[in-house]
């Protein structure tokens, strides 16, 4: 058994979600993939996958083997990059993750430009509103919003986004427009858990940060829900600036208390630390930095 080939096949099965997907990506037959997996499990003396007619799942041994196999294959790719022109010319597959809406509005429009410039690079895009483990999930570049925890990842600043308050014209006409954050206690507020506490929001006044009490009419973990409720006239909502761009352009919402907005949140590109940065990662980060800064 070719152990390296078996390892590659196993990683493709897990990444593709099925044996047939692995066969298609590798350009081999399904029976060949089945035989390779069976030989690998016999060699290891452990079952790596739980298989049903509809899905596959990793066993505990499979999870550990997948993590270590991906790391080993990544090290091998890096070694080959050092000895080939691939380090200078982007090639292979670039895996990117970003928050759902930010990814759709800011990152997706750049992908066509990147592909036109580097047609030898295939793209894998994962849009999720959670912090993905880059190593475990095989991600090359992560786009993150907010202050970053210390880690071994390399961070490149791409820009910032604002934290804004918004309300419908109908609500402001009926209830009045607050002139200072202290007046929010007299309003129905629509809180978003990702942007702070339900009972107080952060602001700046003459350069100094302070918290203002709010009266939450609704608390949600979903920005779309908060924005929709604000459009419906239920109160003053909080969001990130890019999340309400379309509503502001259509005059469905208006910004409130702009002069008191807190410090904007940084947007960063993160990638695993490596002595040799693949050209595909270097060129993608350079592109998004140039367009978003």
Describe what you observe in this structure.
With 293 residues, this protein is an alpha/beta fold. A hairpin with a 2-residue loop joins β9 (200-205) and β10 (208-213). The protein contains 9 helices and 14 strands. The termini are far apart. The mean pLDDT is 89. It has 3 domains: 3-82, Winged helix-like DNA-binding domain superfamily/Winged helix DNA-binding domain (Arc Repressor Mutant, subunit A, Orthogonal Bundle); 85-159 and 266-292, D-Maltodextrin-Binding Protein, domain 2 (3-Layer(aba) Sandwich), CATH 3.40.190; 163-263, D-Maltodextrin-Binding Protein, domain 2 (3-Layer(aba) Sandwich).
Number of helical elements = 9
Domain module tally = 3
Radius of gyration: 24 Å
CATH architecture of the largest domain: 3-Layer(aba) Sandwich
What is the helix/strand order?
Answer: HHHEEHEHEEEEHEEEEHEHEEH
Q: Assign the CATH superfamily of the largest domain.
A: Periplasmic binding protein-like II
Q: Give the percentage of residues in beta strands.
A: 25-35%
CATH class of the largest domain: Alpha Beta
Percentage of helical residues?
25-40%
Strand arrangement within the widest β-sheet reads: 4-3-5-14-6
The CATH topology of the largest domain comes to: D-Maltodextrin-Binding Protein, domain 2
Mean pLDDT comes to 89
The helix-and-strand class reads alpha/beta
End-to-end separation: 50 Å
How many strands, which pairing sense, and closed or not: the largest β-sheet?
5 strands, mixed
């Amino acid at each position: 058994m070719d152990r390296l080939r078996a390892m590659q096949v196993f990683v493709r099965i897990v990444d593709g979600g099925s044996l047939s997907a692995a066969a298609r990506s590798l350009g081999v037959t399904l029976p060949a993939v089945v035989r390779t997996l069976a030989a690998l499990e016999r060699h290891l003396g452990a079952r790596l996958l739980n298989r049903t007619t509809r899905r596959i799942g990793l066993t505990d041994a499979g999870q550990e083997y997948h993590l270590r196999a991906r790391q080993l294959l990544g090290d091998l790719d890096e070694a080959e990059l050092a000895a080939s022109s691939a380090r200078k010319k982007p090639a292979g597959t670039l895996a990117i993750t970003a928050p759902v809406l930010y990814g759709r509005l800011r990152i997706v429009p750049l992908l066509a430009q990147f592909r036109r410039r580097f047609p030898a690079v295939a793209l894998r895009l994962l849009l999720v509103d959670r912090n993905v483990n880059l190593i475990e999930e095989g991600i090359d570049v992560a786009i993150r919003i907010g202050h970053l925890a210390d880690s071994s990842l390399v961070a490149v600043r791409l820009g910032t986004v604002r934290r804004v308050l918004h309300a419908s014209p109908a609500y402001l006409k009926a209830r009045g427009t607050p002139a200072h954050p202290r007046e929010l206690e007299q309003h129905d507020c629509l809180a978003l858990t990702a942007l702070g506490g339900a009972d107080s929001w952060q602001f700046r006044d003459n350069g100094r940060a302070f918290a203002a009490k709010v009266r939450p009419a609704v608390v949600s973990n979903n920005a779309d829900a908060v924005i929709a409720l604000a459009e419906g006239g239920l109160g003053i909502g909080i969001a990130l600036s890019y999340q309400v761009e379309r509503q502001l352009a259509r005059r469905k919402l208006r910004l409130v208390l702009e002069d008191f907005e807190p410090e904007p949140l940084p947007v960063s590109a993160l990638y695993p630390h490596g002595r040799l940065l693949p050209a595909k990662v270097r060129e993608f980060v350079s592109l998004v930095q140039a367009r978003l800064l």
